[in-house]
Design goal:
five-stranded parallel sheet
């Protein structure tokens, strides 16, 4: 049984328009189709929108298919896209080279429509199944938000993208206040329920698809905000703080309030001297520490190495 494939996107790359037209006519009924008439154009398209599968001609001027495949596989953002070579080169050494470079399959011209359809269907099904399993591996089992592994991957990717495109990238690090006391007095079962409710409430508050909330460990969460400056990040942090407080989850043993609250540290990549993940995390952690030291249930950030607060 195949995974649903009608919404999958396939990038067709060939310098001969007639070949693109033929492949498109075979596949467009079942898939979204993107077209590129050169290797450079293909890489440009992939950089802006990741397809689910690439059908790639080998013999193209300036940059051949082998070089395109090599560059795709060398890039962490594109290395998992399945590549199928479609070519008239049918020597064993040609096919071996293509597969060695990371291609999933090697289809010989002249094109057979039934074979193309069957192979594409099989590879798309495998890709979607793999993607589904990967998504599951990125979910925290308790709270159902992203897990630490997913956050680490996204942080690395977004830092690279921010550096390339000169975008700001902000990070929130937050902690449920006095959660150990909550667990001690209400029990771990209610503690788990509390964390799940808090995580889901914050998830609902984050509206942009590019943003990510993840469980960082224990009662600590992180929120990644691409293309967001420090001021807007502080606004989001304050919104999250108010959302959690408004839930009014009773916490009679908290020293911050009579209900569950959170403390949040905010950092932005423009504050980092190294633009590294470790540096951004350190800045956010320092701001979170300041929020806790200042009484909790508040947002703190750093600007020009000096703290800025939004006390409640």
């Amino acid at each position: 049984m195949f995974v649903e494939t009608e919404r999958a996107t396939i990038l067709l790359v060939d310098d001969v328009p007639a070949n693109l037209s033929l492949l498109s006519s075979i596949l467009r009924e079942d898939y979204r189709i993107q077209l590129a008439t050169s290797g450079a154009k293909a890489l440009e398209l992939v950089a802006t929108s990741l397809p689910d599968l690439i059908l790639l001609d080998v013999m193209m001027p300036e940059m051949d298919g082998y070089e395109v495949c090599k560059r795709l596989k060398a890039n962490p953002d594109t290395c998992d896209i399945p590549v199928l070579f479609v070519t008239a080169r049918n020597q064993t050494e040609d096919e071996e080279l293509g597969l060695t470079l990371g291609a999933m399959d090697y289809i010989h011209k002249p094109i057979s429509p039934p074979i193309i359809k069957a192979r594409v269907r099989n590879h798309i099904a495998l890709k979607l199944q793999t993607d589904a399993l990967k998504r599951l591996s990125f979910i925290d089992g308790l709270t159902q938000v992203a897990n630490r592994r997913r956050f680490d991957d996204m942080l690395s990717n977004e830092l690279r993208r921010a550096a390339r495109q000169k975008h700001e990238l902000s990070l929130l690090m937050l902690d449920v206040d006095y959660f150990k006391l909550f667990n001690d007095h209400y029990g771990h079962g209610l503690g788990d329920q509390c964390l799940t409710r808090v995580a889901q409430a914050m998830q609902a508050e984050i509206n942009r698809p590019m943003d990510l909330i993840a469980r960082y460990g224990g009662e600590e969460f992180v929120v990644l905000l691409p293309e967001t400056d420090l001021e807007d990040a502080r606004k989001m942090a304050e919104s999250l703080r108010k959302t959690v407080a408004a839930m009014q989850i009773s916490h009679a043993h908290s020293l911050a309030a009579s209900h569950i609250t959170i403390s949040i540290g905010v950092a932005c990549n423009t504050q980092s001297e190294t633009n590294s993940a470790a540096e951004l995390l350190k800045l956010a952690d320092q701001a979170l520490y300041l929020a806790k030291q200042s009484g909790r249930n508040q947002v703190k950030s750093w600007h020009n190495k000096k703290p800025i607060s939004r006390n409640v």
